Amino acid sequence: MIRKALFAVLFALPLASCGDEEAVADTASAISAFYDIVMSERQSGVPSMEMRTRLRPVISPELDRLLGQAAEAERRHTMRTNNSEPPYLQGDIFFSLFEGATAYEVGSCATENDETIACVVSLSHEVEGEAFEWKDRVLLTISANDANVFLVDDIAYGGEWDFASRGTLKASLRSVIAQEE
C-alpha cells in the first residue's frame, strides 16, 4: 500500500513532463541493463536457467516466475512429444522481431497505472548494412525491496508486420504454461 502511494505521488504525471530527470535516468538505466544482458547472449525461446539467473536482478519477480514456469512447460512438452515437435516459443521472445535486435534506444516514458511505467524503446536489427526498425514498449515496476530500483515487468510488442510477435511477453509465457497444465 505504501509502495503504491509512493509510486502515485512520484509518478502521477508522465515522467518526461514532470521534470524528474533522475527518475527518467533510472528508468533508462533499468531498460539498458535489461537489454544489455538480453543482447549479449542470443537465445531462442524461453531463456536458459543461466540466462534467467543473469536477468533476475533486472526483472520483476513475477516475470522471473513466469519465465521459470514457461521453461518447465517447454521441458514437459519436449518430454511428452519425445522431442518430435518444436518448442512453443521460438526466436528471441524479448522483441517483436523473431531475430531480436542489434541496437536499442530508450525513448519517452509515461505512467501507465499506480504500479507501472511504460517506456517506448526504438529497436533495430541490422544485417549487411540494412536496418529493420520498430518500437516496443517496456513496462517497468518498482522493486519491492528498494523504491529507487525499477525492474522490467513486461514487454508490449509493437511490431506491425506479418509474423511479428503480438500482445505482450507475459501473455505469451502464460499461453505456453497453459498448454502444458
Q: Care to describe what's here?
A:
The protein has 181 residues and is an alpha+beta fold. A four-stranded antiparallel β-sheet has the order 1-2-3-4. The longest helix is centred in the first third of the chain and has 20 residues. It has one domain. It is globular, with a radius of gyration of 17 Å. It starts with a helix and ends with a helix.
TL;DR of this structure?
By secondary structure, this protein is of the alpha+beta class. Helices cover 39% and strands 24% of the residues.
Alpha-beta classification: alpha+beta
Kindly, what is the distance between the CA atoms of the first and last residues, rounded to a whole number of angstroms? 33 Å
Low-confidence stretches: 1-19
What is the percent of helical residues? 25-40%
| Averaged pLDDT | 87
Total number of beta strands: 4
Give the overall silhouette.
globular
What's the total helix number? Answer: 6
> Whole-number radius of gyration?
17 Å
Strand order of the largest sheet: 1-2-3-4
Tally of domains = 1
State the major sheet: 4 strands, antiparallel
SSE order: HHHHHEEEEH
Give the amount of beta strand, in percent.
15-25%
